[in-house]
Amino acid sequence: MTVTIVGAQLGDEGKGGIVDLYGDHADVVARYQGGDNAGHTVVLDGDEYKLSLVPSGAVRGKTGVLGNGVVINPRTLFDEIDALKERGLDPDVRVARRAHVIMPYHRLLDGIEEEAKSDSDLDAGTTGRGIGPTYEDKVGRRGIRIGDLLDHEVLRERLEYVVPQKRAIYEDVYGKTAGEEFDVEALFEEYSAIGDRIRSAEMDVNAGEFLAEHLHDGDNVMLEGAQGTSLDIDHGIYPFVTSSNPTAGYAATGTGLGVTDVGRGEVIGIVKAYLSRVGTGPLPTELDGELAEYIREEGGEYGTVTGRPRRVGWLDLPMLRHAARASGFTGIAINHLDVIAGLDEVKVGHAYELDGDTIETMPATTERWGDCDPVYRTFDGWPEVDWDEIAAEGYDALPAAAQEYVEYVETEVGVPAYALSIGPGREQSIVRTNPFA
Ligand code: IMP
C-alpha cells in the first residue's frame, strides 16, 4: 500500500519526523515534488544528518526514489550522497529519468528575479535553489531531464538550444555578465560526467514502473511531500508559493503511480500545533513581540536550508480545512505540542471574518486572505511536563488541556490524529495508529 505524507500548512511542519516514525514499515520512500529547497534533519544513533534531497528513509537503509515531479540538482544530490558515504553509510537513491535537472543558470536566475520583484513586494522569499526557473523550463518544454544527461548527444542538443536563451535573459534583460553557468561546453563537460556517474551507479529508473512493481510485490511505499499545502502553486497563497504541488494529487503525477494507487492508501496531513512561515506574504494569525519570540526560540524556528528566522502565528483552522479537502486527508499528525507548553492560554484561529461574513475556509486569492481577520478560540494552556514519560505512557498521560486541543483539531478537520509529536526525537512521539499496519 501507499502512505502519502503532505504538509498541511506552510512547510516545516515536521514531516521528516513522521516519515521517520512510519518509515520503518516502508520498503521504499519516494519524493514527488520540490527539490533541494526542502531541508530535513535525520538523527540516527545520536548522529545528525542534514539533508535536502536524499529522502530520509535512505539513511535508514530504505530505497529512496526521487520521482519525475522532483527537480534535481545533481551537485547537491552527490554532495549529500558523498557526505553520507564518508560517514559510513551507503544510501540507495534512485532518480527518475523523467525528472528535470536544476542547472547552474537556474540558481542564478532565481536570485536575480527575486531581486527584481522585491521592488514591488512580489518576491516570494525563495530559497534561491533555482526551483522556480527549473519548473518554468519544464513547462516551457525547454528543460533538461535526467534521461538527457545519460545520452550525450541529446544533452548537447538541449544545451545548445536553451543556454543562449538563458544567457540573453541574464545579459540583455538583467544587464549582468554571464560566466561559466552559461557556457555550453563547460556545462556539457560537467553534466555529461554526472550522467555517466548516474548510469554507472545504476541510479536511473522509470519511476512509475519501479514503484508499481514494488506495490505489486506487496511492498509498502511512502510518498513524501515536501513544503506544504499553502505553498502549493495551485492551492496555496499565490504568488508567495513554491513552483510545484505538495498536495496529494501530485503524489500520483510526480511518481508515475495511478491516482487509484494513492487513493487506496492513506493520506496523512502533517500539522504543526502553531504556524511558522519562511518568506513573505500575509499571515492572518501572525504573532509578534515576546510571545512570537518565545515560540520561535522554543521551536527552533530558523530555516533548515537558509537559517532565516521564521515568522510564527497561532494555528489557523481555515487553512487546515482547506488542506484536508485539497488532499483528502485520511488522518493527521500533530507536531510540536511541547513547543507551546508553558503558556497561560493557547489561541486558535477558528474562522475568519471577511467583509462582515464569517467564513471557515481560505479565500481563493491571497489579497482576500490578507483581508481576513481571525476569529479566535481560546484554550487553557498546558504545563511543561516530562515529555519522555508522557511518550512512554501514551495519549492518556497527555495533560488534559493538550488533549482538548488535539480533539478540537480532529473534530474540525474531520479526521483522527494518528500521531502526536512532543519532542524532537523519534521516541518523543505518541503513535495512535500505524497506517501501514
Ligand atoms: P522556492 O521553493 O525556493 O521557490 O521558494 C518559494 C517559497 O516557498 C518561499 O516562500 C520559500 O520560503 C518557501 N519554501 C520553499 N521550500 C520550503 C520549505 O521546505 N519549507 C518552508 N518554506 C519553503
Q: Would you write up a description of this structure?
A:
This protein has 437 residues and is α/β, with parallel strands linked by helices. The chain has 2 domains: 2-94 and 206-431, Adenylosuccinate Synthetase, Chain A, domain 3; 100-200, Orthogonal Bundle (Adenylosuccinate Synthetase, subunit A, domain 2), CATH 1.10.300.10. It is 36% helix and 20% strand. It has 15 helices and 20 strands. The strands form 5 sheets. A 10-stranded mixed β-sheet has the order 9-7-5-2-10-1-11-15-19-20, with helices on both faces. Strand 19 and strand 20 form a beta hairpin. Helix 3 (104-117) packs across helix 4. It is globular. The protein starts with a strand and ends in a 6-residue tail after the last strand. Inosinic acid (IMP) binds next to helix 4.
Task: Describe the structure in brief.
It contains 15 helices and 20 strands. It is α/β, with parallel strands linked by helices and 437 residues long. The strands form five sheets. Strands 9-7-5-2-10-1-11-15-19-20 form a ten-stranded mixed β-sheet, with helices on both faces. Strands 14, 16, 17 and 18 form a four-stranded mixed β-sheet that branches. It has a two-stranded antiparallel sheet with strand order 3-4.
**What percent strand?**
15-25%
Number of strands: 20
- Main-sheet strand order equals 9-7-5-2-10-1-11-15-19-20
Low-confidence stretches: none
Write the CATH homologous superfamily of the largest domain: Adenylosuccinate Synthetase, subunit A, domain 3
Separate helix tally: 15
CATH topology of the largest domain, anyone? Answer: Adenylosuccinate Synthetase, Chain A, domain 3
Mean pLDDT: 95
What is the global morphology? globular
CATH architecture of the largest domain: Alpha-Beta Complex
Pairing-aware structural class of the strands and helices? alpha/beta
Count of discrete structural domains: 2
Bound molecules: inosinic acid
The biggest beta sheet is recorded as: 10 strands, mixed
From the alpha-carbon coordinates, what is the Rg to the nearest angstrom?
Answer: 22 Å
Top-tier CATH class of the largest domain: Alpha Beta
What is the terminal-to-terminal distance? 10 Å
